[in-house]
Amino acid sequence: MALRVTTMMTARATVRDLQGDLAELSRLQRKLSSGKEIVRPSDDPYGASLALQLRSELDGLRQYQRNVDDGIAWLNASDAALSKIAEALHRARELLVQGASDSAGPRARAAAASEIDQLIETIKQEGNVQYAGRYIFAGTRTDTAPYTLLGPDTYAGNNDRIAREIGPRVTLDINVTLDPLLGGGQAAGDDRLLHVLRDIADHLRANDGVALRGTDLQRIDANFDVLNQLRAEVGARTNRLTVAWSRLRSLEENTTELLSGVEEADTVRTMIEYTTQQAAYNAALKAGAHVVQMSLLDFLR
Question: Would you tell me how many other CB atoms lie within 10 Å of the CB of residue 187?
């Protein structure tokens, strides 16, 4: 059976085709103006899903980087304080060696004892150092000063660890506590640094050269070993965080590049497509003008 094609059918088909061409032209124009390959999820559902996944990965990598930055700053502050404690301890050992000599008289030993008292306060002050308003040597009690200046040598913090997540299911402790080094003073009787320095000051005042030359020197050297171990631990963690930062930075650059490849439009190719589509649309308008009435095409324009 013959099918009669009416003028109305031709007009509707022409309008439908022109609308399709115009929609494609609008899509290309949005790509050019935004510079994005995907403006709406419907433009590329798979690409939109991949872009969301990549953005989530970027957010995670940047959070890990912030954690690493915080950890490095914390450990740098710790290392600086430990360095100051080492300087004070070196000076205390020099005073001990000088005071242990038989040539040192009571007056010289008393003066050395007074200087050691000041070195003790310096060490405790460095033990109370803060980073971003938090006491870094107090364990998790970061709002409490570990030691009281010009007061008892009791340690007020704890030995709990503070960790930062530097990767998926990867954490690293960023704090060290000073209790294993400084201890709790003479009241604790723990042979740690504050206890040893207090004893040295007492032996200097008591003019006890035998104790100064014997056990005191051995005890202060033992605490030097503990201090060096702490500094080595801080340095090792800092190195690990530095390596982690470089790795995270590299991953961020790669992920950003992948995201750009998914989202960013190829400007040259899009311009060519837009020009081609515009020419096709104009040609369709002219062709349609010979098929349907001009009034309809004028309305479409």
Answer: 13
